[in-house]
Write a structure and sequence with these properties.
Order of helices and strands: HHEEEEEEEEHH
Low-confidence stretches: none
CATH architecture: Sandwich
Distance between the termini: 47 Å
Shape: globular
Helix content: 25-40%
CATH class: Mainly Beta
Number of strands: 8
Largest sheet: 4 strands, antiparallel
CATH topology: Jelly Rolls
Strand content: 25-35%
Length: about 150
């Protein structure tokens, strides 16, 4: 699987050039998950950035009747690259055969040492993507807050 195109679809990497993505690709491991594979259990430590290269993941939370569906280009686990105490708020399960690209905190530390400008750009992409997600969910949070 080429890692470049799935990364280009992910908002974190939207401002990366193809050359930068090519330099970043060796720091991402490919993982194939079969239907029903549990990627992460709710409450367990997160193990790094995960980008969906193909397929779908279902995120569910036992304490709430909440399910979210992620698809190609979506990501999760971003904060665990820099926060070793980060844990998953959701159980993450593959809804079909799914290809993932994963960067562990160790691989991120190596990236910081060898290509610090690229590591900074990755962090900027994570912040930009997170900011966008917060802006998108803010109206929903305001509605929920008003009903409490």
């Amino acid at each position: 699987m080429s890692k470049i195109m799935p990364l280009k679809r992910c908002s974190i990497f939207s401002e990366f050039s193809f050359g930068e993505l090519s330099m970043l690709a060796p720091y991402l491991l490919e993982e194939t998950c079969k239907l029903g594979h549990i990627v992460t259990k709710e409450g367990t430590p997160s193990h790094g950035l995960v980008v969906i290269a193909s397929g779908h993941l279902l995120l569910s939370q036992s304490s709430q009747q909440l399910e979210l569906r992620l698809e190609m280009g979506d990501s999760l686990g971003e904060f665990s690259l820099i926060d070793s105490k980060s844990s998953s708020l959701f159980q993450v399960e593959s809804e079909e055969n799914t290809e993932l690209l994963k960067m562990s905190p160790h691989d991120f530390q190596t990236l910081k040492q060898k290509l610090p400008a690229l590591a900074v750009k990755l962090l900027e992409g994570i912040l930009r993507s997170t900011s966008l997600k917060v802006r998108q969910i803010s109206p929903t949070l305001e509605q929920i807050s008003a009903t409490l």
